[in-house]
Amino acid sequence: MADVHVLDVLLHGEPVGTLARLDDDRTLFGFLDAYVQDANRPLLGLGFKDRFGELITSFRPTRTRLLPYFSNLLPEGRLRTYLAERAGVHAEREFFLLRVLGLDLPGAVTIRSPEGDVWPPDAHSASDRPVHEAGDGRRQALRFSLAGVQLKFSAVGEARGGLTIPAKGIGGSWIVKLPSPEYEGVPENEYSMMTLAGLIGMHVPAMRLIDVRDIANLPEGVGRFGGTALAVERFDRTSGGDSVHAEDFAQVFGVYPESKYMQASMRSIARVVGVEGTLADVAEFIRRLTFNTLIGNADLHLKNWSLIYPDRRRAALAPAYDFVSTIAHIPDDKAALKFSRTKLFTEFSEDELSHLADRALLPERLVLDTARETVALFRQHWRAEKSNLPLAANVVSAIETHLASVPLARARQTRVGPLQRAP
């Protein structure tokens, strides 16, 4: 009989399906009958619904990779390589990597091995275990998975204001994003852009800059050069430590992480938000799209937009994250995704937004009024705060030069009164 390895897929702690790996490296996903038959089942993801809103129950097998939904639960790039090396798992063997990291995934999904949580179960050498030596000599398991490419860790807040990486690598309601070895001042840049977004009225999580030296239990060799990290409160965790389900738009559209710059547009994201969310979600989407265009964020891809499920069934736009003025580090004149017809920042105009509203079936007046208001509020808060935020002079200069090239930013501005929120 073929050797089949099975992983249980849980949502909010309850089994909903299984991932089974065959000897030929194919992986099969299937829902449990109890989940399929539950009329009040919590939603795993929008991509598991057909165009009639019914649950999809048949899936093609994948080889080496997992289905895009599960692949997007895993980190990318440097972070994936780092965690895979310490787990003794090949970075591309996603079934085994998910088995290692499945106890602390984004959202409310967890992955459990019926054979136990340790991988590999019969390992005898330290190099084969998903552990490494912590700085104080204790063994520390790395069992979290934070999607993305930046080196970051799940952390727990301390009463004195610092943060601690959990000894077992599981849990934590904060994300610690370490300084970039390639680009100076990225944590300060992101902190500043997120602060501005909050002042304008966008929904941003709590965050703070923290000295890397104030982060306890960091893995040996990580952050050894010091500097400033950004700590962001996780929107997929409650203050009591419970999980809130979430999914990014690469999961929604069923594309692998490497395709996060392709196969979709801001217009297609907007249409999903319009169908699944409220008018307040639509206005928030336009606010964020306009803001990120004004700051020159050329890396606002599918994985930088997410939905949350506060009631476990209906989707809402998740709080904002990963707002960075990338043009200050890598000059670029294009957005990561098309707005509606174009990626060019120099063509982000009211006409382009009207086209987006029409094709995404959104109220044009709401879209244009929200965009105009966002531009006016951005200029107001940028003037007041740019000298107070921890921004390098080159970042300020890059944004101001960029603003002059964005048609919507040059359009005639009307006086802005109190923020008007869509219902």
Descriptive overview:
The protein is 29% helix and 16% strand. With 423 residues, it is an alpha+beta fold. Strand 2 (14-21) and strand 3 form a beta hairpin. The longest helix is centred in the last third of the chain and has 22 residues, at 364-385. The termini are far apart. Mean pLDDT is 86; it is low at 117-141 and 414-423.
What structural category characterises the helix and strand content?
alpha+beta
Sequence of secondary-structure elements: EEEHEHHHEEEEEEHEEEEHHHEEHHHH
Provide the CATH architecture of the domain at 245-410.
Orthogonal Bundle
Mean pLDDT: 86
Query: Numbering strands along the chain, what is their spatial order in the largest sheet?
Result: 11-13-10-8-9-12
Over all CA atoms, what is the radius of gyration? 22 Å
Strand content: 15-25%
Approximately how much helix is present in the residues?
Answer: 25-40%
Q: Any idea what the shape is?
A: globular
Distance between the termini: 59 Å
